[in-house]
Amino acid sequence: MSTQVNPDLRDAAASAFREAICAKMEIVPFVHQRAWWAATDSQILLDVPDPQGAVVRLPDGTVTHYMLAPRPEGRARFVSDLGAFKVGKSFGSALWASGFACLPNRKVTLVGIEYSICEPEFNYIIEFLLSDSGMGMKKDSLTNNPRNGDMFLRLTNGTVYEAKSWERKDALKGKEIDAYVYCEAYQLPGLECFTAFSQNLRARRGFAVFPTTPDRPWVKELHQLGHGADPEFACVCSVPSESNPFTFDAKAKERDRSLMTREKYAIHYEGKLGDFVGRVFNFERGDRHFSSRSYPELFDGGDRRENLRIPVGWEVVGGADTGTFYSAGLVAFSPSGDAFVLEEFPNYRYVAGQPERDESLTIPEWSKAVVERVTQLGARANFWADANSQFKRELINYDICLLPSKHTRETRTEVTREYFQHGRIYLAPWLEILPFELENASWPDETTAAGRFERVKDRDHTLDWLEHVLSHRPMGAGLPAPRPPGRWADQFRPKGATGNIHLGAN
User: Would you call 153 exposed, middle or buried from its count of C-beta atoms within 10 A (0-12, 13-18, 19+)?
Assistant: First the structure.
């Protein structure tokens, strides 16, 4: 039979075959599984009992029927199932994909960051289609060796299921596909995993399915597209662990509540997307800007850097991070204790998510620009920095003094998180580097112990100095109180020493 099959007939046949698999194997899909299946069938699953509706299994294990209504946007071709771990995302996507096996010469590709990630879906497909308890279909060939990158099933009707690793993504190019299933999509580098190969779906009006935990900021793009931004996208989200009554462990959930970070707990057990997606700060670029409209006392005119002014009674404090990549900046504290990030002075920018140093910017030139701006704002060129900062001696020649901050990164991060959590920090609209670093700051995967944590040390040279500054103006109780620079120097200056105590002898 030709590969040219009317897409509407194909989709209707796949839907019917999917239901036949469920009937044969006595499978009742969970609500979230049925919801996104319905979207691919041009329907919406409503939380309304209907004896003639779609059969679903509720979190308490009982079986009922929910009403189906027409989807105004028509058939969704790109769907996301965003939920907690162990809620049946792999099972549901594999069963859905198995529907295509009823037609000849179809092609379904599983995509994972590596082949082993595709194992659950691939094994389920084998069980649904080939086993005696399943549909008992015949195969031409089958290899299932993720270690060697060989996961391939061809049925006797010519329909193919195969797994591909993103590490070998070039193998995804130039093929007509009926469906992509992006296994644990959060591990992939971003929406590029879809956009780079979406043209392969056009000829057959194919589908892309994203069953994943929302463990990376980029997954929010799927959420936004699936909730109105694009009618061809649909999203089922915030699927909690209770959705699967066969795997849910109430005792483990309660235990892990005190062991995990709030971020990890929200992902693992609540399937949350938004506030906590594995990130350290609840921040996205564009958030928490101050302007002449919201804070007119900070501007003498429009929202431009040259119009910035510091009111009487406000304190301006500097921070710095020096090394191969270096940066400095200024924060103004209002009398009420709110922090306003005014300036950043990096010697780098981000290109494709990675820092790229401005080789033409010398330390003397950088220092001159910093001091000039500090002077304009009526501040002092004293900058909190790491106690082991580079260039201490050199920078003092340009009237920049680095004050040693001895707070741990754990403490610095926690204080900074408090500022964001309490809404007590605001960013100037012209900042570019700091917003990127705030948005991408993340916890290490192994961070699960109670208490405070150290964030990943990556792409954070500007963020570092912000944390230094804020840690010397903590909002929370029980944190080290800042020492005034003069008292600190007097206390630790060796007898007979000359020069600046923070920099060593001149």
Answer: buried
Q: Is 224 helix (H, G, I), strand (E, B) or coil?
A: helix
pLDDT in tens, 357-382: 999 999 999 999 999 999 999 888 89
- pLDDT the model gives residue 71: 95
Cβ pair 270, 410 in contact under 8 A: no
Rounded (10°) CA dihedral 321, 406, 501, 329: 30
Q: In one letter, which amino acid is 314?
A: W
* CATH fold group of domain 7-270: Rossmann fold (3.40.50)
Question: Confidence class of residue 394 from pLDDT cuts 50, 70 and 90?
Answer: confident
Question: What is the CATH number that goes with domain 296-492?
Answer: 3.30.420.280
Hey, where are the domains in the chain? 7-270, 296-492
Q: Which of 330, 383, 323 is nearest to 348 (CA)?
A: 323
Token pair 């080789």: residue: 359
CA distances from 314 to 132, 219, 267, 445 (A): 76, 40, 40, 40
Closest to 465 (Cα-Cα) out of 345, 310, 290? 345
